[in-house]
């Protein structure tokens, strides 16, 4: 449990540092602005762009978010571009570690499109 909490804090720190870097650059966008994300189903890494604002969550749009988590390869998700289950980069990060999509403020919901091709 302690390792999972530590991993969550590391991931949040990574996401926040990327957001701060984008804000300092004036949000100019482009390849390499966001973290690299590993897609398990494909065995590929993707560059990404992190949007500045968190996305709103409610029970009615829960199915539009895909889980992003810390895996052995870093920030990881199950599906990516080309997979029918990929949702275009709307992510849910389980901040409190209970494996349940909780309201904003408890878990984090944000946009981070993956940029192809994967490598």
What's the gist of this structure?
By secondary structure, the chain is α/β, with parallel strands linked by helices. It has one helix spanning 2-24; strands at residues 37-39, 44-48, 66-67, 69-71, 74-77, 90-93, 108-111, 114-115.
Q: Strand sequence of the main sheet, in spatial order?
A: 4-5-1-2-8
N-end to C-end Cα span: 32 Å
The proportion of strand residues reads 15-25%
Please summarize the sheet with the most strands: 5 strands, mixed
One letter per element, helices H and strands E, the order comes to HEEEEEEEE
Number of domains in the coordinates?
1
- Basic shape: globular
Q: Pick out the low-confidence regions.
A: 16-30
Could you say which structural class the secondary elements and strand pairing correspond to? alpha/beta
Average pLDDT metric: 75
Q: How many distinct helices?
A: 1
Number of strands: 8
Task: Give the quaternary arrangement of the chains.
Answer: single chain
Query: What's the alpha carbon Rg, rounded to whole Å?
Result: 14 Å
How much helix is in the residues?
Answer: 10-25%
Topology:
Layout: H1 2-24, E1 37-39, E2 44-48, E3 66-67, E4 69-71, E5 74-77, E6 90-93, E7 108-111, E8 114-115
Parallel strand pairs: 1-5, 3-6
Antiparallel strand pairs: 1-2, 2-8, 4-5, 6-7
Question: Mind explaining what this structure looks like?
Answer:
Helix content is 19%, strand content 23%. About 13% of the residues have low confidence. With 119 residues, it is of the alpha/beta class. The strands form two sheets. It has a five-stranded mixed sheet with strand order 4-5-1-2-8. The chain is globular and about 35 Å long. The chain has one domain.
């Amino acid at each position: 449990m302690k390792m999972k909490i530590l991993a969550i804090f590391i991931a949040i720190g990574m996401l926040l540092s990327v957001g701060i870097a984008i804000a300092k650059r004036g949000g100019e966008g482009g390849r390499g602005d966001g973290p690299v994300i590993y897609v398990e189903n494909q065995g590929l890494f993707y560059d990404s762009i992190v949007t500045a604002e968190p996305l709103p969550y409610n029970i009615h749009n829960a199915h539009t978010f895909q889980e992003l988590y810390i895996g052995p390869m870093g920030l990881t998700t199950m599906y990516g571009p080309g997979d029918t289950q990929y949702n275009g980069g709307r992510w849910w990060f389980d901040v409190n570690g209970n494996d349940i999509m909780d309201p904003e403020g408890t878990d984090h919901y944000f946009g981070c499109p993956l940029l192809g091709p994967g490598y």
